[in-house]
Amino acid sequence: MSDSPDSVTLPRSHAPTRPRKQAGLLLDEPLIFERSRPGRRGFAVPGGDADPGAFLPAELLREPIEGFPEVSEPEVLRHFLRLSQWNLGTATTLYPLGSCTMKYNPVANEAVARLPGFAALHPLVPDHDAQGALELIWELERMLAEISGMDAVSLQPAAGAQGELTGMKMIRAYHVDRGRARRKVLIPASAHGTNPASAALCGYSTVQVEGNPTGLIEAAAVRRAMDDDVAALMITNPNTLGLFEREIVQVAEAVHERGGLVYLDGANLNALIGVAKPAHMGADVMQINLHKTFSTPHGGGGPGSGPVAVRDVLLPYLPTPRLVRAGEQLRWSDDFPKSIGRVRSFYGNFGMLVRAYAYILALGGDGLTQVTRMAVLSANYIRRRLEDAYHLAFPGTCMHECVFSDKGFEATGVKTLDIAKRLLDHGFYAPTIYFPLVVSGAIMIEPTETESKETLDEFIDAMLAIAREARETPDVVRNAPTQTPIGRLDEARAARRPVLRWTPKSSAES
Amino acid sequence: MRYLPHTNDDVRTMLARIGVGDISDLFTDVPADLRARATVALPPGLSEQEVRARLEQLAARNRAVAPRCFLGAGAYPHFVPAVVDQVLQRAEFYSAYTPYQPEVSQGTLQAIFEFQTLVAMLLEMDVANASMYDGASAAAEAVLMALRIRPKRSRVILSRALHPQYRDVIRTYAAVAGGDAAHRIDLVEAPVSNDGRTDPEWLAGALSDETAAVVVGYPNFFGVVEDLGSIGALAQAHGALLITTTTEALALGLLKPPGACGADIAVAEGQSLGVPMSYGGPGVGLFATRTDFVRMMPGRLVGEAVDGVGRRGFVLTLATREQHIRREKATSNICTNQGLVALAVTVYLSTVGKAGLRELAIANTAAAHRVAERLVQTGRWHQQFSAPFFNEFVVRGANAEGVWKTANSRGVLAGLPLRYWYPEFGDALLLCVTEMHDSAAADALVVELSQ
């Protein structure tokens, strides 16, 4: 399914196409451009009839944009509401996407983020006019420091991957300060793809560390891989197999002994609150994905928010500006000469910070601890009830997620992808599949704490039914899904002849 | 625990099925020493009503002074039709994730396909991606992409009139602190002419076959419309790429688009297009380029596809550029887009539409020019720059900061004292006027600045 290396021509649409299902509640819907009719409009502009030539030279101006939508307001609403109905989300069903922590996004947080005092606030108002926003940021920094055990937090990174980049930039600055950037970063084979990509963006080459037969990283293996040219180890705990790295403290010691630092990928923090603090494990820096543990919506793929938390050794390198207190007033300061600088405009995804802050207030310390306990309970319940029907990659207790595979189904011809697709017919989103890469045909299930036992049972029953189908009527599984608005799409063809936009007819004919 | 459904009975039944006696038995892999020190010292949880009260109290301490706030400089106050937020509050959109399973994610996928189309049209480029974090990180990724396209070149020219924070973020992304020569990126700053545009003579002298890219703001930080065509021709003559960055995306409803002026990569902050300022984030980075460079692009891309019986659908595509496949060889470490904010832009541009976008841009430039003219007529202020501007402009006058402070204390935020970011421009204010500023607001500004 690889992309052709040929230069890309952008073909026109694959039309003609057949309509989707139009039965029952599922309504067909064209592209917004295909709804467009010349002269129709959904918006009126006072003062929009002035002559622009009075203000700007004609050679700087463009014509109205050909192909831009011309639709009425009710059509806009209908268009997007119909599209919404083709999505599954955590609000509609269990979304057991492993490593993504697809929990409930509290609606109360949506409401408070829209308070005009937050939503209409310009980022460059004088600090004395933004004291409420600054106090929220100040408190959230300290809440996350308490949860992680770390010494300081910056809320600036826009997403988890940008938090990783920020953390690795700080690690590099730390080593440069001590004379030498070093050249290598150790990364376990089970790591998220963002880890090696972030390390590479900081100029590091990556060295893979293999796990032992029980899926864990051993301190001895890290010690063997360590030398004076290793800047850091990037490690996820619990790891992407859903297992707690039992030797994490010794692993961190092995890194520190040779002057390296420990980057902890905080993607799986939902399994740790009240159980173990990253600082105590030996982490020097980590990112915290507010859209995972702290319930801010995933939004169909963003906006995320990826604050970084550091131990005191990395404090001087935190991104600027940093929030400082001067008497009663909070203010932004750029006066940190060793800082790595800015990774984003302004102060981060503030709207997401408001939601995360509201979530932490709502749950409190005890509630957050209960979140972790229920998340781990639910994952183990699924693990126990499915482990006779599916091959569990690593036996034993798991943390917040469990990883199965399609091993054992070889004779049926049913593969992980088919199992995932068949789950859609049962009304569930699919788990993360084919990740982590260390498990062939991985099926990674993370139920989160917000699903009831009845829902977990329904999901388990669906998985058990699919395992039976795979042996008795494998074609049913291989041909799934059949209950969705469209069937499986030809992804290879889509990549070979990429159609990445709609094109107006008049220019399509040229 | 209103978000947690487990009853005591549920917990007991589940533990029994797992085969352990207590929840703590599930955590025996965690060393006892770590567990003993893990207590989270935060206050007890609050009811929805209590949380709401606390947040309202904090929000009330912010002085969101619009419509008497004349700040732009990278974030812009604009009207957002109610239909935009109505759609954003659909949990089917906001509670989904990256559409890995296209059969049950067609809503998100089709909306992104529409977004990519709208962005490509707005910038008049061949192809746009599914969005980046914000305008600044999009600019930084554009610089890294240009260096991939021109691997033998290491110099990148940044206009001094490019948003200072965008320059900062580019510096952060480009810096491989103390790194080896193979990774070194040579960032050079192009000066500004007296008219407020990037100095063309300096550019002509500085461009060489070492230059990978030239990055300019369009409009630039001073609101000035650059002579993009000339800069593009200069860059092209030396085989360098032209990267344009737009902080005020509404301007592209009226100004000649980057793609028509020789841009190879065009990026923008999309906040102006239906997204509240929200103290600076979340915004959304628009990122577009030419067909030849598609496989060098960072970020997610959605493409059209067909299913087994010929029905049209949409999928994530060209994923072999990305971190989850390519790991350390990926074009970027980015793993999501700004999905929901991109949706806001899509709904906004669909609603405002072909005629509305242009009219709104005209209304903005007209309102800004009228205020600028009135300020000049007071005799107290001069326009700092002579080149054409869109909805932001710089005025210079004695004791600018003193007047600005007094105005602020009286509830009028008279833009940004430029000296904060450009020490060479003392006694100058960067002002922004949009459709949100009615005549009463404009009057108030003129009165305050006439003191």
Shape of chain A: globular
What fraction of the residues of chain B are assigned to beta strands by DSSP?
5-15%
Largest contact between protein chains?
A-B, 217 and 211 residues
Strand content of chain A: 5-15%
Helical content of chain A (DSSP H or I, runs of 4+): 25-40%
**Helix proportion range of chain B:** 25-40%
- As for the number of domains of chain A, it is 2
CATH topology of the largest domain in chain B: Aspartate Aminotransferase, domain 2
Protein architecture, described:
- The complex is a heterodimer of chains A (510) and B (451).
- Chain A has helices spanning 32-35, 73-84, 107-113, 116-119, 131-148, 160-177, 194-201, 219-225, 248-257, 278-281, 350-386, 416-425, 453-472, 474-478, 491-496, 505-508; strands spanning 152-154, 184-188, 205-209, 230-236, 261-265, 285-287, 308-310, 322-326, 329-333, 391-392, 402-405, 432-433, 442-445.
- By secondary structure, chain A is α/β, with parallel strands linked by helices.
- In chain A, strands 1-7-6-5-4-2-3 form a seven-stranded mixed β-sheet, with helices on both faces.
- The longest helix of chain A has 37 residues, at 350-386.
- Chain B is α/β, with parallel strands linked by helices and 451 residues long.
- Chain B has two domains: 83-346, Type I PLP-dependent aspartate aminotransferase-like (Major domain) (Aspartate Aminotransferase, domain 2, 3-Layer(aba) Sandwich); 353-449, Aspartate Aminotransferase, domain 1, CATH 3.90.1150.10.
- Chain B contains 14 helices and 13 strands.
- In chain B, helix 4 packs antiparallel against helix 12 (339-377), helix 6 runs parallel beside helix 12 and helix 7 packs across helix 8 (164-174).
- The longest helix of chain B has 39 residues, at 339-377.
- Chain B is globular, with a radius of gyration of 25 Å.
- Chain B starts with 7 loop residues before the first helix and ends with a helix.
- The chains are: A alpha/beta (510), B alpha/beta (451).
